[in-house]
Amino acid sequence: MSPRGRPRDTEVDERVLQAATELLLRHGYGGLSTDEVAERAGIAKTTLYRRWPTKDHLALAVVARLQDHDEITDTGDIRRDLTDYMEKVAAGLNRMRVAGLPPGQESRSAGTVAELVAAAARHDDVGALERDVYARRNALACRLIERARDEGRLRPDVDPMTLLEQLAGALYYRVLITGHPVDRAYAERLVAAALDGAL
Amino acid sequence: MSPRGRPRDTEVDERVLQAATELLLRHGYGGLSTDEVAERAGIAKTTLYRRWPTKDHLALAVVARLQDHDEITDTGDIRRDLTDYMEKVAAGLNRMRVAGLPPGQESRSAGTVAELVAAAARHDDVGALERDVYARRNALACRLIERARDEGRLRPDVDPMTLLEQLAGALYYRVLITGHPVDRAYAERLVAAALDGAL
User: Which positions does the record tag as DNA-binding (chains A, B) (predicted)?
Assistant: First the structure.
């Protein structure tokens, strides 16, 4: 996530990202303060700003780190693997959706998911980083689909990215646009619809 | 779109919304000013604020009005009808995506689409209005899918909303998250994928 290509002190990075993750999840986007993250991580503000020039950069690094923890598993059962992965994507969205709300409170608002989308739209460099994070992540998911296709478990003409966009897109659409819940049951329905087709 | 249920002067409304649409499309979200809209529409600011308390309310009314102009046509050919509708949704997203940019300039950023999503997430009443706008719109699109299903042109177990979410969701995901283009060619690929299924 370093935009400057400088050698990284991974131990310091990890401390910063852990503090930022805690603050973001507990207090939401509005409650994430770079000053407080620097203090909690025990580093100088200037050190923090050299790596993450703004709060938006830091928030995006948190999302990238959380996504990296979501494993994409290939068991050979593509229906199950896609459903499991979509459940993880949904859980990640829900985590950001309720960031900053009192524990247990649900929300129809997209919350911090929308703030991150807006930050990426507002600043060119944050947008470019955000698209990189998703491109890297989606390449992994596409490889899962490609393997299933190449082994004859999916139609030979399946376009992996279009299939992925139908699935992940539906989850983001519910969170960002219609305010409907996303969970395991929805992931199952969605994957079944995309695999079986409407015709 | 009136949040207060007051009788409407539709001619004044139309003048306000036309002025707001022009400003929003030409200058983007940052360039939309309620003061300037009131002046262009020739009404008192207080009159404008009574109906649209903030710029966010006004921007959402613009989106609702533009969406109402996108007809959903039922020719009996569900593949074509869904592709045509998705092309309209894509065109609407592209219009908002480049709002405020110099003519002809393309963008990987979501632009005003993201600003609207953030406004809906930030203010409960704007969020509720936004979800109403989409619920109304999506109910019309679902009826198109239901008719095709009930006439045996789609599988009997198709869930119209899930199908719609797969389609519209993929478009919004490209615009808001991955920055990829959405156009007629993509709408065709997407509808084919959703109808034919990946298995």
Answer: 33-52
